[in-house]
């Protein structure tokens, strides 16, 4: 008998975090593991942001902050949303959290009653379905396929709606597929939401700046649904600030106030020093952000060429984020040199870790059983070596 709650016993461990842990354990044994499992830019945080944090500390910004964040940060976020996305939000509609992860959790916790349904297109980011579970909702999946560039259509969305549907939740650019919804594709989804005024939309835009096909399009730009959109964004990906733990939501004031109330009982405001760094990041221009995006674009090309040469691997060309999500099903049922049969994507991912010493994540964690996720947020040298190792390991299967 366990002493733990059903809530935690029913929760799956985050596979991204699990694979990162396994990779670190192998590295600790002196094995040279190339970590392509964790979705984290390998760049350092830009210097001007680190300088702002040092200055904040020197100026004693070391006390509790307002739960939703310092007013200057919330104002800077509102200005960013206007400047970069053309969206009007008052600073009181913004709640800053300990990462976009907490902003997502806040959004679900304040919106869902037990058994409310949340429609999630697959592949989706690992934590979505588990967060829905924590908030006692039910996930309803729509399977987007590689043939449709891993995007859903308006008809598929409408077919998934039931009287219990409370929310729809997606990321664009998408983790793990890199798919990016165009304005026209979003407009088609909006035409469905217009018919169902009780459905709220969580729009996770954390990869907005890692977009290789042009400007970012937010579903919040459509006035007919804007009040029902809970826009999620953060600093981890654009500014290489994963360890600083800062993200935010922007939403209708009733929802923002509810997130503030929830956060006030759980974590309060995120780190004061981080918040001051966040103000500097938003007001400091996009030069570094674009340099990092250009580096990702170059790496995408290198990895695409190398992965495409591996026979049996079906590779999509992502439009954004920094992941490939290749279909590895051609290798299911094959045997390793030691005679072990690889039955599914998790077996392949563990085989690549233990044999090729390259860590990836099984697609099952993202709601797709045929694929694995490969992050290309690593140096060009590491990426070339990793692709070589993956190719050798896969082609040696019989
Ligand atoms: N959404 C998506 C799609 C992600 O990939 C991540 C992982 N960084 C997050 C949200 C959470 O980001 P963070 O908590 O680091 O801001
Ligand atoms: N979001 C990143 C990923 O997908 C970081 C890990 C995590 O927060 O789960 O790998």
Summarize this, please?
Helix content is 40%, strand content 14%. The chain is of the alpha/beta class and 398 residues long. It folds into two domains: 147 residues, Aspartate Aminotransferase, domain 1; 238 residues, Aspartate Aminotransferase, domain 2 (3-Layer(aba) Sandwich).
Describe this structure in words.
There is one protein chain. The chain has 13 helices and 14 strands. It is of the alpha/beta class and 398 residues long. Helix 8 (183-193) links the parallel strand 5 (165-171) and strand 6 (200-204). It starts with 5 loop residues before the first helix and ends with a helix. The chain binds 4'-deoxy-4'-aminopyridoxal-5'-phosphate and glutamic acid (GLU).
Secondary-structure blueprint of this entry?
Blueprint (H helix, E strand, L loop, with lengths): L5 H4 L5 H14 L5 E2 L11 H12 L12 H15 L8 E4 L1 H13 L5 E6 L4 H8 L3 E6 L10 H7 L4 E7 L11 H11 L6 E5 L24 E6 L12 E4 L2 H14 L5 H12 L3 H22 L14 E2 L9 E2 L5 E2 L2 H12 L1 E2 L1 E2 L9 E4 L4 H16 L3
Parallel strand pairs: 1-12, 3-4, 3-5, 5-6, 6-7
Antiparallel strand pairs: 2-8, 7-8, 9-14, 10-11, 13-14
The site of 4'-deoxy-4'-aminopyridoxal-5'-phosphate has 13 residues, from helix 5.
């Amino acid at each position: 008998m366990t002493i733990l709650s059903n809530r935690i016993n029913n929760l799956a461990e985050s596979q991204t975090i699990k694979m990162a842990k396994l990779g670190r354990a192998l590295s600790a044994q002196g094995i040279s593991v190339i970590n392509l499992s964790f979705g984290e830019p390998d760049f350092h945080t830009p210097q001007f942001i680190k300088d702002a944090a040092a200055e904040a500390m020197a100026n004693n910004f070391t006390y509790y902050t307002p739960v939703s964040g310092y007013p200057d940060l919330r104002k800077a976020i509102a200005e960013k949303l206007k400047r970069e996305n053309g969206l009007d939000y008052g600073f009181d509609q913004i709640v800053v959290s300990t990462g976009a992860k907490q902003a997502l959790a806040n959004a679900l916790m304040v919106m869902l009653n037990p058994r409310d349904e949340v429609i999630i297109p697959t592949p989706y980011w690992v934590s979505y379905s588990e967060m829905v579970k924590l908030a006692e909702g039910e996930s309803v999946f729509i399977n987007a396929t590689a043939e449709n560039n891993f995007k859903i259509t308006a008809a598929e969305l409408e077919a998934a709606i039931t009287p219990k549907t409370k929310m729809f939740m997606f990321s664009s650019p998408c983790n793990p597929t890199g798919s990016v919804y165009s304005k026209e594709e979003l407009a088609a989804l909006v035409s469905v939401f217009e018919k169902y005024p009780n459905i709220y939309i969580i729009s996770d835009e954390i990869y907005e700046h890692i977009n290789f096909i042009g400007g970012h399009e937010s579903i919040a730009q459509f006035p007919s649904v804007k009040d029902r959109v809970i826009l999620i964004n953060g600093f981890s990906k654009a500014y290489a600030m994963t360890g600083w733990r800062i993200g935010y939501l922007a939403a209708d004031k009733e929802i923002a106030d509810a997130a503030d109330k929830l956060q006030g009982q759980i974590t309060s405001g995120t780190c004061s020093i981080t918040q001051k760094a966040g103000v500097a990041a938003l007001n400091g221009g996009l030069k570094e952000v674009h340099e990092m995006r250009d580096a990702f674009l170059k790496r995408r090309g290198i990895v695409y060429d190398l992965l495409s040469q591996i026979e049996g691997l079906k590779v999509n060309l992502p439009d954004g984020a920094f992941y490939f999500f290749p279909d590895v099903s051609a290798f299911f049922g094959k045997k390793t040199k030691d005679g072990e049969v690889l039955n599914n994507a998790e077996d392949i991912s563990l085989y690549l870790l233990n044999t090729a010493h390259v860590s990836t994540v099984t697609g099952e964690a993202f709601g797709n059983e045929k694929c694995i996720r490969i992050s290309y947020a690593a140096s060009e040298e590491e990426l070339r070596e990793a692709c070589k190792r993956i190719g050798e390991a896969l082609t040696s299967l019989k």
